[in-house]
TrEMBL record:
CDD domains (UniProt xref): MFS_MFSD5_like (cd17487)
GO biological process: monoatomic ion transport
Membrane spanning residue stretches: 6-22, 43-62, 74-96, 170-189, 201-219, 285-306, 318-338, 344-368, 388-405, 411-429
Protein keywords: Cell membrane, Ion transport, Membrane, Transmembrane, Transmembrane helix, Transport
Protein name: Molybdate-anion transporter
One GO CC term, this protein: plasma membrane
Keyword Cell membrane part of the UniProt annotation: yes
Keyword rRNA processing included in the entry's annotation: no
Membrane topology (UniProt): Multi-pass membrane protein
Length: 460
């Protein structure tokens, strides 16, 4: 079955290369040299930031296990990370609108570097502090950089359509190519150079430090609403009012939480799904294959976003339906193929089909990221962008914590079925968003400074 892995990887590589090389004028966006320089600077920084994140991922569990911690103790560390992202990360991330997005991006670098340093200690309490810091950094990574980009893009007067080009390239490189290279580099450090499981964390800290230097030397500061008289509670209340008073923002938040919740659950499930009887599978190579599938999705997204039709609100309905169908494969295979009772060996025939389905899901992930970024740039108000984006992550983190805590309580097919239902609901909500997107903006959120306290009892 080893040939199967190479065939899948090879076919995906050819398709991605063909998509990139066959782009014509309709698939490309004509831009200016000033924008190209701005875009490339952001892509360098974002790729360095994602390298710092991807290098750590495959080795967190492994590092904890080498320190002698049990599965339960490791689970508690992971829950602490997501819980920290939900509680502390929401607060710190929301400060970006008031204190500055550049400053928040630098804070991400410092926080994640400190988290990497804690990995040198085998002490459980020190590692717990590292997980808390890592949770805060995650919230900053997925809100502050995008908020800075959108504000800076608009401040420099670039065309709105050009923003989608930066989004798609950021996903192609940062969430695809960099992930593959980081996985191979981490494997080189740990296994080829025998530097131990802490080496990828040291390398991640170096990449983060380089990225921080680029930010400090080349980025300008921008803010959401820097009003001096607005405290954090006021920001939170303003974000809540924005979400409650604009159905588009509320729908966007629900769609994001449903998809990302399913995506993070998939991260925990794909290994036991492909090796239910401890079959030997090349985890690193499969991970690289998934990232290649994600690159395929982001390449498709760049073509779609470069055109006026179909609209992002339209084609994302299909993306959610396809992703829901792809995660039904483990359930279908369990019902039509008798489970093997043989321990060990290579991947089974059912596992091969599931792997293909998982690659389709990862392609949908590659389509999702630039598309959701595009919609967020359109519908989330600038003055509270970081705060609202961190609000969106609260239900996501709650969901992931619940899944982690109960991961052994449900059958794996039940978990995949739940994810498929969530993705189907996301498609329905996306349909609703498309239906209302062209309606008059009578209920859209207005800046807090323009609200009339006598007419609006929710005014703050």
């Amino acid at each position: 079955m080893e040939v199967f892995y190479y065939v899948v990887f090879g076919v995906l590589s050819i398709v991605v290369a063909a998509l990139e090389l066959s782009k014509n004028n309709k698939d490309r966006i004509n831009t200016s040299s000033a924008f190209t320089s701005f875009k490339n600077n952001y892509l360098v920084v974002y790729s360095l930031m994602m390298a710092g994140d991807w290098l750590q991922g495959p080795y967190v569990y492994y590092l904890y296990s080498t320190y002698g911690f049990s599965k339960g103790e490791i689970g508690q560390l992971f829950i602490a990370g997501f819980g920290s992202s939900m509680l502390f990360g929401t607060i710190v991330g929301s400060l970006a609108d008031k204190q500055g997005r550049k400053r928040a991006c630098v804070t991400y670098c410092i926080t994640y570097i400190l988290s990497c340093i804690t990995k040198h200690s085998p002490q459980y309490k020190v590692l717990m502090v590292g997980r808390v810091l890592g949770g805060i950094a995650t919230s900053l990574l997925f809100s502050s950089f995008e908020s800075w980009l959108v504000a800076e893009h608009n401040k420099r007067g670039f065309e709105q359509q050009w923003l989608s080009l930066t989004f798609s390239k950021a996903v192609f490189f940062g969430n695809g190519l960099v992930a593959i290279i980081a996985g191979l580099f981490g494997n080189l450090l740990v296994h080829s150079f025998s530097l131990g499981p802490v080496a990828p964390f040291d390398a991640a800290a170096c990449f983060l430090a380089i990225g921080m230097a680029v930010i400090l030397s080349s980025w300008s500061e921008n803010y959401g609403d820097p009003s001096e008289n607005k405290d954090l509670i006021t920001q939170f209340r303003g974000a809540a009012v924005a979400i409650a008073s604009d159905e588009k923002i509320a729908l966007l938040g629900a769609i994001q939480s449903l998809f990302e919740g399913s995506m993070y659950t998939f991260v925990f499930l794909w290994t036991p799904a492909l090796s239910p009887n401890d079959e030997e599978i090349p985890h690193g190579f499969i991970f690289a294959t998934f990232m290649l599938a994600s690159m395929l999705g982001s390449s498709l997204a760049s073509r779609l976003l470069a055109r006026s039709a179909p609209r992002v609100e339209s084609y994302m309905q299909i993306v959610f339906l396809v992703s829901a169908a792809s995660l039904l494969l483990p359930i279908i295979m369990a019902s039509v193929v008798a489970p093997s009772q043989v321990k060990g060996g290579g991947i089974t025939f059912a596992g091969c089909f599931q792997l293909l389905g998982f690659c389709i899901f990862e392609a949908c992930v590659g389509l999702f990221w630039p598309s959701i970024m595009k919609m967020r740039s359109q519908y989330i108000p600038e003055e509270a962008r970081s705060t609202i984006m961190n609000f969106f992550r609260i239900p996501l983190n709650i969901f992931v914590c619940v899944v982690l805590y109960n991961v052994n309580a449900f059958a794996i097919t039940t978990m995949f079925g739940m994810c498929s239902v969530f993705l189907f609901v996301a498609s329905i909500l996306q349909r609703r968003l498309m239906m209302i997107v062209d309606k008059p903006k009578a209920n859209d959120w207005t800046p807090l400074s323009e609200r009339n306290t006598e007419e609006d009892p929710l005014n703050i």
